[in-house]
Amino acid sequence: MTQFTETLSQVGGPEWLQAKRQESLALFESLDVPTEAVEAWKYTRVDVDFGALRPHPRRDAVQDVSALPASVQKRLSSTDVGAFLVFDGPDVVYRTELPQDLADKGVIFTDLRTAVEQHAGLVQQYLYSVVPAEVPDDTTIAAPGTTPSKSPDPSEGKFSALAAALWTNGAFVYVPRGVEVELPLGSFRVMSESGTYTATRTLAVVEDNASAVFIDEQDSEPLENAYAIGAVELMVKSGARLRYVSIQNWGKGVTHIQRQRGDVDRDGKLNSLVVTMGGTLSRTEMQSYVRGSGAESEMLALYFADEDQHFDHYTLQHHAAPNAYSDLLYKGVGADQSVGVFSGMIKVDLGAQKTDAYQKHRTLMLSSEARNFSVPQLEINANDVRCSHGSTTGPVGEEEMFYLRSRGISKETAEKMLVTAFLEDVLGRVPLKSVTDYIEGIIAEKVGAV
């Protein structure tokens, strides 16, 4: 692990941050790589030679958007954002500034490395508070007066510990009390070097009765033996509203491992959407900690796996307070020889009476060779709740396909229409047209209808 110790000495930062990094690296080195013997990793194996990993090289900033990768230029020209950051590996290579009226109200939107220098007090207060660095699995955390959930196998936290130790940059969003940010803020991450890894961290804090929309995208050309690991911390205070969108469209050859966790306080509302389209292997842990009474968490996701892609989604709806609501809807498509995995848990703590929680996972199979594994679960420790879960998997309807083909529509176009219709009840919940148009374009490419 010598190279990680050397990397730690290079990333810098204040003393408190270096201490957190050292704790996380020690935890990483003490844990085994999760195998199929760990229930949460039963259907997914990550083969990685940690000794051969090297960090993504540094990149210089560019002055003109035309110097950015073509995929990023296309996204920037087709999406409406109030301000954005573009990362190539660990560095911000292009940025637009936050509108002055928002800056005057105390809104902060910058890269996390800069935030550590310029807003040290805020970052130290919130960093690692939602996805901790010092424990292997944050599901053991419970609100005061409630019973914590049983901790799973600690090896589940190995990659999270590595990301907590080695992150080099990411986005920082801070919205003060009562401020509404109407236009979305955006972060666009690319990788451009094979045989490397990037470790990133996103931190978004929305104070009491404030609101914001944040779009977090990842994209690259095909790479060989590349790794993207990271964590996303979303802090939604009392009465606040945050809409978070993550779109993962890495090129083939990238392994993507990320833990995302939202902490929602009293009467707060978190709407999250995770889109998984790229990479060769993707493992996304999407967790929502419903801390306060009256809080709401909407967890949406869609994915389309084709060729030999392997997509694993591991979710948690953790209710620690009474009279709160969560709704999870995951829809996926499997084609060719791909593998899809969904493992979802609703956990209700002892004091979380009147919990209202739903979990639904549906998969559309375009190939008889594709595989899908679905494991919905409940752990209820209160006696006055309404919780339900369900999962369905099935092929494209023969009648629907025949109807479209009989009207002169090609097989590829017909599949695109059916897949888009299948995913519509997720896309229909996202009031960001540029985002849904982009997703529909990726779907068209995957079914060959462009």
Automatic annotation (TrEMBL):
SUPFAM superfamilies: Stabilizer of iron transporter SufD. Residues 192-422 form the SUF system FeS cluster assembly SufBD core domain. Residues 14-185 form the SUF system FeS cluster assembly SufBD N-terminal domain. InterPro entries: Fe-S_cluster_assembly_SufBD (IPR055346), SUF_FeS_clus_asmbl_SufBD_core (IPR000825), SUF_FeS_clus_asmbl_SufBD_sf (IPR037284), SUF_FeS_clus_asmbl_SufD (IPR011542), SufBD_N (IPR045595). One of its GO terms (biological process) is iron-sulfur cluster assembly. It comes from the Bacteria. Belongs to the iron-sulfur cluster assembly SufBD family. NCBIfam families: sufD (TIGR01981). This is Fe-S cluster assembly protein SufD.
